[in-house]
C-alpha cells in the first residue's frame, strides 16, 4: 500500500498491551486519514454513551496520507476523542514533529484506551510501545515535562504532553507539543489526564512510501515556490495571523467584553505592529515555509518571558477580557501553555465570569482587564482551586450551575466556547460556528472574510452554499490529508494542488467530486456520532443544538461602525434549514437514512435506529 501504512496501533493502558491492527483499504479510501480516520475509529471502538473521562473512551492520534511528505505545511496531525466538555465529537489538529514521527512508525493512527494505575509516559518507537513511569513528571508544567523527556530520551524525540490542567481534568485542557503548540480545545488534555497519561514520546525509523514519489516531489517543490512567490508572503512572515487584529477592528468583529462589542478602544496596543516590535523569532510546523508562530519577548512590572502568539489567543486574552497592552496578554498566554489550557476557551470563560460579576450574577468580583486577578484565576482554573474549580467546567456548565439569567451571557455552541470573531453582524459566520463538527470553532469555516465581501446582513442560500463548500475544504479535506490550510487561505496557493498531491501519494485518483464525497461522509458520520452520544445518555437533540449564542440576537452592538446590529432569528433559522437541506439532514439536523446509505454509512443508520431515533 502506498501513501498509507494500512494499520493503526492499538494501546490498552489498563493492562499495558498493544497490537497493530490492519485498516481495510476501503476505510482508508473512504475517510482518507486525520479527522476522517479518527471519527471512523471512534464510531467503531467507543462504547455507545461512554463517559468521556472513563477508561473505555478512546483517545485517537491520526495522521493523513500527505503528513510528513516534502510539500507545504505537511507536519500536521489530529488528536480526537469523545469530548468531556461537550459530550460529542472533539478534536484538534497540531503542527508538530510528532506527526512526522508517527508516520515514520508505519502507522496511520494510534488508538489508546484504558487507564494506567499510575502516571505513565508512552514511548512509541519502531521496537513497539514502552510503558514508562510518569510519576516523576506528574505535576510538572508542559515545558518542564518536555525538557525532561528530551533529556532522558534524547533531543530528537518528539512529545505530546499535558500540564496540571489535564491532570486535574479541566474540561478545557489541551495537549501541548514543542513548547507552545496546542491541540484539542474540547478537552483532549483532560482525556489524557483521565487515563493517567502524562505524555507520549515518539521516535520513528523509516519514511512512508509514495505511489509516485517523483511526481509528489515535483508538485511539492512547485507548491513551495508558489508560496514564496505570493505577493502576500512578505507581510505574512512579518505578522502572520496577528494582522487580523487590525482587520477585525475595522470590520467590527473583534470580540470585546465577552462578545458584547466588535471593537476595542485599545486594539492598537495588542495589534500585529506591536507584536513585530516584540518579536524575537518565528516557529513553524515541520515542512512549512510560511511560519506562523510569532515568538515575542515581553516584560511586565513583575514578569519577563517568551510566548508564541497568534490572533485567536491575543483577541481572546486581550480585547475579550479588556486586557492590554500586549506584554500582559503574552504572559497570560504563556501561563495557559504551561498549564495546558486552551487559550481561546480561557479567554471566553474569563470574559463570561467578568460579565456575570458585572451583572451581579457571580458573587466573586472579577473586573475587566484586572491583570492580577486574571493571572490568579488562570492558575486557579489549572489547579481547580476556588472559583477556578467552577470555571474549569466551561461556560455551558457554569451557566447551568449558576442558573437564572447566566445562560444569556454564555458564548458557546454545543458546549464549546466561541473563538475570536463576534457575529452580531455576521450570520454566515454564526452559522459556521454553530455547525462546526466540534462546537464553536473557526478552523472548519473561517467564513467571516467571505461574508464581509458578500454583505454583512444577507441571509441567503448563496452564503449557505459557500459555507458548506468551505467546510468541506477546510474541515473535510485539510483535516484528513492532514496538511495546513494556511498556504491556501493566506498566500492563495491554488487548491488544485491538493487532489494532485493526494493522487501522487496514494496512487488513488482523487477528483474534487470524490473529495467532496469524502467530506460529506465525514461530516455526516461526525453528526451521527453527536446524535448517538446525546440520545444514549438521555439528552435531547433538535435544531436548537445548531443555534449560536443568544446574546447576538438580543443585545445589539453599542459601538463602532455597525452600532445597533444584531442577528435576526428568522433569517438565521432560514439559513440553518438551507444548510440541513444541502447536507441531506432532516429538520433537526439529523442525517436522513437515504443520505447515510448514499455515503456508505448504513451501519450508522442502523445504530441510530436501534437507539430509537426515527430517520426520515
Quick structural overview:
Helix content is 43%, strand content 14%. The model has no long low-confidence stretch (mean pLDDT 97).
Explain what the structure shows.
The chain has 616 residues and is of the alpha+beta class. It has three domains: 197 residues, Aldehyde Ferredoxin Oxidoreductase,  A, domain 1 (4-Layer Sandwich), CATH 3.60.9; 183 residues, Aldehyde Ferredoxin Oxidoreductase Protein, subunit A, domain 2; 176 residues, Aldehyde Ferredoxin Oxidoreductase Protein, subunit A, domain 3, CATH 1.10.599.10. It is 43% helix and 14% strand. It has 26 helices and 17 strands. It has a six-stranded mixed beta sheet with strand order 2-1-6-3-4-5. A four-stranded mixed beta sheet has the order 8-7-12-9. Helix 1 packs across helix 2, helix 2 packs parallel to helix 22 and helix 22 packs parallel to helix 26. The longest helix is centred in the last third of the chain and has 25 residues. The mean pLDDT is 97.
List the topology elements.
Blueprint: E1 7-12, E2 17-22, H1 25-31, H2 34-45, E3 59-62, E4 76-82, E5 89-95, H3 97-104, E6 109-113, E7 120-125, E8 128-133, H4 142-153, E9 158-161, H5 164-167, E10 175-177, E11 181-183, H6 188-194, E12 197-203, H7 213-229, H8 233-239, H9 244-250, H10 272-278, E13 279-283, E14 293-299, E15 304-309, H11 311-317, H12 326-339, H13 343-358, H14 371-383, H15 387-391, H16 395-402, E16 412-413, E17 416-417, H17 427-435, H18 448-454, H19 461-481, H20 486-491, H21 497-506, H22 512-536, H23 551-554, H24 569-583, H25 593-598, H26 602-610
Parallel strand pairs: 1-6, 7-12
Antiparallel strand pairs: 1-2, 3-4, 3-6, 4-5, 7-8, 9-12, 10-11, 13-14, 14-15, 16-17
Helix pairs in contact: 1-2, 2-19, 2-22, 7-21, 11-13, 12-14, 19-22, 19-24, 22-26
